[in-house]
Amino acid sequence: MTATPAPRACPACGGMGKRVLFHQEFAAVEQATPVTGYDVVVCSACGCGFADGIPGQRAFDQYYREMSKYEYHQRDGAESEFDQRRMEIIARIIAPHIPVRDARILDVGCATGRLLANLRELGFSNVSGLDPSPACAVAAGRLYGIAVRTMTLAELGAGTERFDVVILVGVLEHLRDLDEAFVQLRTILNPNGLLYLEVPDATAFANWQNAPYQDFSTEHLNFFAPISLENTLSQRGFSRVFLEQNLREQSYKTVMSNISAVFRKESTVPFGALAFDVDTTTGLERYIADCAIEDRRLHSKIDALVDAGRPMLVWGVGTHTTRLMATSRLADANIVAFIESNARYQGKTLLGRPIISPDTLHQHPEPVLISSRVFQHEIAAQVRNTPGCTNELILLYDF
Fold it and tell me: How confident is the model at residue 1, as a pLDDT?
């Protein structure tokens, strides 16, 4: 029997009072899904949003080490054109805040190292990465000649290496236990060292079309607004240098809201007082209401597919698919198999159906349901460009 996760303290202020806004659910991929559901809550004391009722950090550490999706198997390790542009933009935001060209720069969660390569092109030669995936480390060395450590922050902190700049792009929202992470970040940063952060902007989730509840993923555990992000950092000894709300093009006709910020390590902890964040609750409630409308449309389309009873393949086993398998009638569909580009998932099962490689698609004549909005365009192109594959494509989104 699986133990019930202990109630989670607020990641910003440590408070235990909270209000539930939504309950998220996922079907479990065999030995691969870190969490099968959680409550989206806001803290009664400071207003920060976060996922409650989740397992400990160890479960997520194992997931990122063993099931990383940032190795880009379908592109032989290379980032998409959208990720390439995004990294170029981020590098140009960071660069003016780095005082010297020989600053020691570490990118935590660097994936295959593209951002570090961009910074090196801007004249910062002393760059290195940290990522839990050994395959990402190999790809970073092969693609860009970037050295990437696969140790933990704690293991790095136990050594003698110290850095002037630490980068966390798309990392903070994934961490279940922020206290330990920030102890290690303060350890590896030199006095007055800089921390560059990018996180999704919870106040603007509803501003850009996406799949319903996609921002409440199996991996996103913290939902920040500018105020709650600054509260989180100030309570751990960092002062704000720069902060802006912006957007990033994630894929074809998919945009993600974003907060970019630079914080400086101060000598005292905590540094500064907390302000109450009302924006997170407002933004999340608006997002949840909008998602409910789109979710009803999606369920109607899935109902028609189930009622037709046609055998089909489903492409994708990520948040989009596992949520639908848990919350809609998709689990009742005549699914022959799931297709997944990430080799870590191939050979496993999702609710008893096998997960197979795209390389075997030519052996299957069944229609392919593309269960993704973010990558619908890319997956459709991949199917159409695969020799010998004339499978009918079933699209859930019209754009």
Answer: 38
Are 56 and 34 spatial neighbours (Cβ–Cβ below 8 Å)?
Answer: no
- Contact at 8 Å (CB) between 223 and 200? yes
* In contact, 33 and 26? CB cutoff 8 Å: yes
Token digits of residue 176: 């279940």
Residue corresponding to tokens 């920040």:
224
283 beta partners:
none
200 by Cβ neighbours in 10 Å (0-12 / 13-18 / 19+) ranks as: buried
Q: Please, how many CA atoms are within 13 Å of residue 232, restricted to the half-sphere of its CB?
A: 30
pLDDT at 78: 67
pTM of the predicted model as reported, rounded to 2 decimal places: 0.93
Question: What span, in angstroms and rounded, lies between the C-alpha atoms of 281 and 202?
Answer: 9
What helix, strand, coil percent values describe the chain, rounded to 5?
35, 25, 40
Which DSSP helix (H) or strand (E) runs through 295? helix 279-308
Q: How far apart are CA 194 and CA 27, in angstroms?
A: 40
> What's the CA gap between 34 and 55, in Å, rounded?
8
Domains observed in the chain = 66-286 (3.40.50.150), 309-395 (3.40.50.720)
* Residue located via tokens 């005549």: 334
User: pLDDT grade, residue 77 (50/70/90)?
Assistant: low
Q: What tokens does 291 get?
A: 């998602």
Residue 42 half-sphere exposure, CB side, CA atoms within 13 Å?
21
Tokens of 65: 């080490």
Q: Which two tokens stand for residue 299?
A: 């369920």
Q: How many CB atoms lie within 10 A of CB 213?
A: 22
Strands (E), 5-52: 18-25, 37-43, 49-52
The helix/strand/coil state of 288 is helix
Closest CA to 381 of 252, 203, 233: 252
In tens, the pLDDT along 159-217 reads 999 999 999 999 999 999 999 999 999 999 999 999 999 999 999 999 999 999 999 99
Please give the Cα distance from 279 to 204 (Å, whole number): 10
Residue 309 has pLDDT above 80, yes or no: yes
- Return d(Cα 56, Cα 209) in angstroms, integer: 31
Peptide bond before residue 5 is cis, with ω within 30 degrees of 0: no
Q: pLDDT tens digits for 331-366? A: 999 999 999 999 999 999 999 999 999 999 999 999
Is residue 229 within 8 Å of residue 261, measured between CB atoms?
yes
| Distance of alpha carbon 96 from alpha carbon 98, whole angstroms | 6
